[in-house]
Amino acid sequence: MGKDTTPDSILMRLEMLTGKSNRCMNVRPEAPVEKLPQDVIESKIKKLKSLEEELLPKFKLGLGCLLRSLDLQKDGTKLPTPQFESTITSLQDIDELSDQICRNIQEVDFLSPPSKSHDFHLGRCKVFLTGLIFKHTRELLEEDLPYYFSQCHKFIKSWKKSKSAAGKARAAAKKLNLESTFETGDRITKMTIDNYQSVDALIEMLRSSDYEVLQGYWRAAIETLEKNIEFLTRHTHPSEIPRSNPTQPDIQDEEIKKSSADLNRFIVLAKSVILLNKLARTLLNKITNDNPKKMTFTLTTELNSETLQDLQCIPGSFTLALEIITKGVIRNITSNILYSSEASIRQAITHISQEIDSLLVLLGFHLVPFDRLYDRLSITTNFPDWCRTWKGMWRTAVYHFRNALSDCQREESESDDDDDDDDHSHNGDNPFNFPPDGFSDDEDSHDDEDPNDDED
Q1: Which of 57-61, 235-239, 288-292, 437-441 has the lowest mean pLDDT?
Q2: pLDDT in tens, 219-232
Q3: Which of 10, 21, 52, 167 has fewest C-beta within 10 Å?
Q4: Is residue 124 within 8 Å of residue 36, measured between CB atoms?
Q5: Which PANTHER family match (predicted)?
Q6: Are residues 148 and 163 in the same domain?
Q7: Does residue 434 sit in helix, strand or coil?
Q8: Please, what's the b/e burial string for 117-135 (b: 16 or more CB within 10 A of its CB; e: otherwise)?
Q9: 272 with 396, same domain?
Q10: Could you tell me if 303 and 184 lie in one domain?
């Protein structure tokens, strides 16, 4: 075993790599770039192509070589036998490739006009795409990779101790080191798979159009809305509705009736929130349909980065607001108390509607129908008509939500008049006052979707 391929030399190399957590932190140009010459645009396109077709695939292969050199792809019950020479080679390759990837994305992203500029003509060099690539590359190389190397360091260290431990006096220590070796080895294997997926996501983003990149973010918002619907449906299921125990037997009937009436109001409110979530999901499903036979429009390519960033962020913004309202309504049901003021919740719903209006305006301007499928008289292919119909349904749903909210608030106000010692919070610095943990993901679900469920 050569001097540079001992376990100690590998540990030193891994310590150095673990400390390289600022690969992509080069200084940006002092003067902002206002215009890109054609030769610079062509150079940027080549670097993006190199990332997609050469550097990122090689980086992924390097991770696989490192996993094999550490002998972590065989029987997990036997002590691995790392190949130190190939381990050093794999670490060097990953390090060099990481630096090349950083240089490429820095040159592409840093030397770009600001997003407020009209960069619609720059194609793949728009700040919208290069900024996202830089962000995800930086997360991979400055956050995930150093931690990955730290686990490799821990693995080699525990492996070394387990090999050197001998004799009955050291039996317990050897067992402990073996357990640590196997545990860390399993963690490295899982982290390698996670890093594979991160690299694949970067490559896919480099291959995607602006519209396809946006659809990825919209799908994430749809997943959140579906979780909201699932949890609200579950908590309004008869078997999940909490029942109160009267504190005084002599007024048992009165307490039961009042508690039941209060709870029914919260159930009505929750069902109105289900409808809002479903309508928001319908809207995002409409613009995220992956079936080319059903998709009747696409997004124009003549969009600058500022507009694209708005299209990316707005759905996430109103989805987050709906998630907060969903959690609050669930808390209302489980405690039979309205935890937020009517004004603060109305303000949140107004904000959501404004965000949705902004999204619809942008989509109305920039969605282009497919000529072969476009039928002006069909609501399916005529997006403006579809939008008007959807907006009418949204306004109706908001109207019902506000009525249900007013009923809950009115009952709370009457209860406050009867009981001055009520200690729950009605708005404050945090108007929603929702618990940070929200609700559990492991509760049993029930199939009781509203019979008026929309068809996506």
Answers
A1: 437-441
A2: 999 999 999 999 99
A3: 167
A4: no
A5: CHROMOSOME 7, WHOLE GENOME SHOTGUN SEQUENCE-RELATED (PTHR33069), DYNEIN HEAVY CHAIN TAIL DOMAIN-CONTAINING PROTEIN (PTHR33069:SF3)
A6: yes
A7: coil
A8: bebbebebbbbbbbbbbbe
A9: yes
A10: no
- Is the domain of 199 the same as that of 234? no
Point out which residues pair with 299 in neighbouring strands: 367
Among 84, 79, 83, which Cα is nearest to 163's? 79
Coil, strand or helix: which one is 451? coil
CATH number for the domain harbouring residue 41 = 1.20.1420
Strand partners, 367: 299
Distance from C-alpha of 411 to C-alpha of 408, rounded to nearest angstrom: 5
- C-alpha to C-alpha distance for 423 and 231, rounded to whole angstroms: 27
**Within-domain flag for 91:** yes
Above 90 in pLDDT, residue 168?
A: no
Q: Which of 123-127, 298-302, 334-338, 390-394 shows the lowest per-residue confidence on average (mean pLDDT)?
A: 334-338
pTM above 0.90, yes or no: no
Where in the sequence is the domain holding 101, given as residue range(s)? 7-208
Domain contains 28: yes
Check whether residue 156 and residue 41 sit in a common domain. Answer: yes
Instruction: With respect to residue 419, please indicate whether it lies within any of the assigned structural domains.
Output: no
Total count of domains within the chain: 2
Evaluate the CA torsion angle 146, 108, 202, 284 in order and state its sign: positive
Q: Are residues 195 and 228 in the same domain?
A: no
Terminal CA-CA length for the chain? 64
Which pLDDT score, from 0 to 100, does residue 353 have? 96
Mean pLDDT of 376-393: 79
Polymer length of the chain:
456
* Six-digit token string for 183: 């545990």
What's the count of helices (H) and strands (E) in the chain, helices before strands? 12, 2
Backbone angles phi, psi at 444, to 5 degrees: -70, 145
pLDDT for the residue numbered 350: 94
Question: For the residues 408-426, what does the mean pLDDT come to?
Answer: 51
Mean pLDDT of 424-441: 35
Buried b (16+ CB within 10 A) or exposed e, 241-265: beeeeeeeeeeeeebeeebeebbeb
CA angle 239-245-250, nearest 5°?
A: 140
CB distance 84 to 267 below 8 Å: no
Q: Give the pLDDT of residue 351.
A: 94
pLDDT at 444 over 60: no
In whole angstroms, what is the distance from residue 147 CA to residue 191 CA? 9
